[in-house]
Amino acid sequence: MKRLSIIAAAFLLFTTAVNAYNPPANGESIYEISSARMLSTASSITGGAIFNGNVSSSTVNPALPFDEQRVSLNAGFTMLFSTNPANSKSVGTAMQIGALIPTKWTVFSLYMNGTFVPFEEMNFNDSVNFKFGVSKQITEKISLGLGLNTGFLWGAGKDWSLSGNIGLLCTQGDLGFIKDFRYGLTVTNLGKNYGKTTATGMNPMNAVSEYPTICTVKAGVAGLFVQTSAVSLGFSLDVGTPLFQDFMIDAGLECSIKDIVFISVAERFKLMEYANGYNDFIPAIGIGVKFNFGFKGNDMMNKNGWSESEISTTAAYKQMFNSVNAISTEMDLKLGMEDNTPPVITLWFGDEGDD
Prior knowledge:
Elements: H1 2-20, H2 36-40, E1 72-82, E2 91-102, E3 107-119, E4 122-137, E5 142-154, E6 159-175, E7 178-192, E8 216-227, E9 231-242, E10 248-257, E11 261-270, H3 271-275, E12 284-294, H4 299-303, E13 308-321, E14 324-334
Antiparallel strand pairs: 1-2, 1-14, 2-3, 3-4, 4-5, 5-6, 6-7, 7-8, 8-9, 9-10, 10-11, 11-12, 12-13, 13-14
């Protein structure tokens, strides 16, 4: 009888928590919606099918930029369109800037985004958000990241946020026929998030809950099916839950041609959004290009070893759900070229006749 009472109490607590869970549709993605890379890889916590630990990736797992050798600058812009005639505005925007700063001991990430999404069916309000992160490779295969979120929200009410993130990434190497196998774990939004708002949640009959949700836990894997000098093809898969009140699956496929052109498709499924009629079964599509360029006539660039650098650009389309579509673009500028040549150490013992 005692055991039955405990089970009934636990079930009642869980049911109450699920009923209270009511963020705006796509509210869990408020930090990533400004990134074409995140939209087209379903915000993979393992760096995507083909690994990319850029500034945007640090928003979902602060451990991902662990091996960045170069100062990296990032900018992104997303435009959202709503076809819902009930909206007074049919266009929303999200934008971001960020940087990765590697040091001898660790890699720092700095990120700022603004979201201005006024739709009745997807009301983020207006907000400016900041993220600060640090990532460190602690063993040959394991990297750890810590992050801090803060921001301000206005529009339908005013609020602020202050929370932390923990991320882990393991680079396993080859696992059977899968190349570059990786797995990761994140626990995010540990603190105060946005909640003092009169905006509409995904269920308009209930009060909106905090978003993004405190203690969102995700686990993910990624790897390559094919890896040659001409073509690489891989997958990523994450599962997660925001405080055990919802269930999310993020899946993606990505192909690279000559490590220059990148094509990705991705899909995200959220159980509670689906239950509330926010259906989205059209995968996000992304196309990226990476190329090198030079600053040969610039003394400052030459002095810092940045005379030759790298640019990556990504464009993406995603249907958020039936009435809202997003078009996004993003650029990464990595100053200098990556050094993949290990140092050569020569031992000299001198001539036999030397003292």
